[in-house]
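Now for one record:
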Amino acid sequence: MLLGKKRIALLLAFVLVLSTVLGGCAGNSSQSSAKNDLLFMGSYTAPVIDWDPSICYSVESLVMNNFYETLLRYEPSTDSFTPILATDYTKSEDGLTWTFNLRHDVKFHDGTVMDAAAVKYSLDRNKDMNKGASFIWAPVNEIKVVDEDTIDITLKYPAALDLIAACGYSAFIMSPTLAEQGTDWFQLGNEAGTGPYKLESQVPGDQLIMTQNEEYWGGWDGKHFKKVVVKNVGENASRRQMVENGEADIVNSLQVEDLIALKDNPNVTVYTSSSYANTIGFFNTKVKPFDNKLVRQALAYAFPYDDVIKYVAQGYATRPTGVIPQGMWGALDKPLYEYDLEKAKALLTEAGYPDGGFDMLITYISGVEDRKKTAELYKSELEKLGVKVELRGMPWDQMWELAKSPNPEDRQDYLSIAWWPDVVTPASWFQSLYHSEKDVFFNLGYYSNPKLDTIIEEADKASGIDRAKATELYKEAGTIVADEAVSIFVTDGKSIYTINKSLKNFSENPAYPYILFFYDFYKE
């Protein structure tokens, strides 16, 4: 239980927020309306790190997708698109020319009109910033204004432009009038979108309040929250108490033990659904003995896959089949490896290490309990093979810098990272994690295979005109990565939130991990 000054400060902060945003609602005679005046979310991290909609590529995607909108929104359950700022679109047979018809009478938060010129400005800016997820626009050759409500986009090569236009990063449409003031203006804590909510106030790094955009094109008929508060509540125990006590409507990233304990609480719901986020481990393929495929395969057979799911995730994750999470197109049908120490010993013997006899540095993100427990389980199995393992918990930024050390010998031998898509295509994994890199960025296994590179590039181009062909190519790529044992596929994650029982219509789209569209929720 949280006691003392921290607990008092947290409660005072919450009361202050309520008094600020609800002060004018005390005399409201409509109880139903009052319930939907405010949504309060306790988040494990700061609401916003980067305010520029063309650059932001981190935790701020949660609020940015409520300030800003994209042309389309992808619905993976039906493999279809919901029209947002574009009402419909067409593409040429060769997949090189796409025409988007825009929604009429939409206004930005500054009152200016959203039209084809504004869309062209926004997409050109997203592409030309060369930051954040700007790389998603690499296939684009030119964006042309046809008329006030129509744009044409021509590509250098076929690509799934509808998926790109629906991306939750670097695909936002913004007011040119405001955006022309530049990145510095955004970073002061400003926004320029068309979304259902606009910024009311913020305390940098701590709290953000958004209020309804009264001129929102979607309208405010029906049940919608008028204000949303997202507050940084870093302590796990504090987030749990807030949702238990009804102080918060939504909290995220509670520890598994808390989720299990809260399952029987009649006042809360532990929400789980499929997710495209997964956890992948990488071997340092540039140093001995991990440059040996047989050694990597042996270590893949030594990984305690089922124990991680059962004892670490305790059911809040599933066993992966490969690089691509299950349920997404391009995923393999079954995993290549199972836990088998005898097979691992045989492969190590074949590789020239019958008694192990080598050291292995495993790093994990400090403070993330499931990563620590997984590393400890893996260490226990590896030591049965004669491998001497050092476990080292590190902050993510330090771990990443170690992984990018110029000298491969200075890097860790194995590390794991969480990954989720920007554009909902297997290219988000293969291009970033397994395509050859001149300079180390996210290919943290340092694996380079010209044949694999070609397959990845062909699959990406096919995805815009022949999804079936692209799917088969990505499965071929996934089979190569698995056979080469570049990685350990640790878990396919689930989307998990703990919410107040009265919150209705709550959901998270797996195409948009860690993003909630608050406009869709209401209370009863």
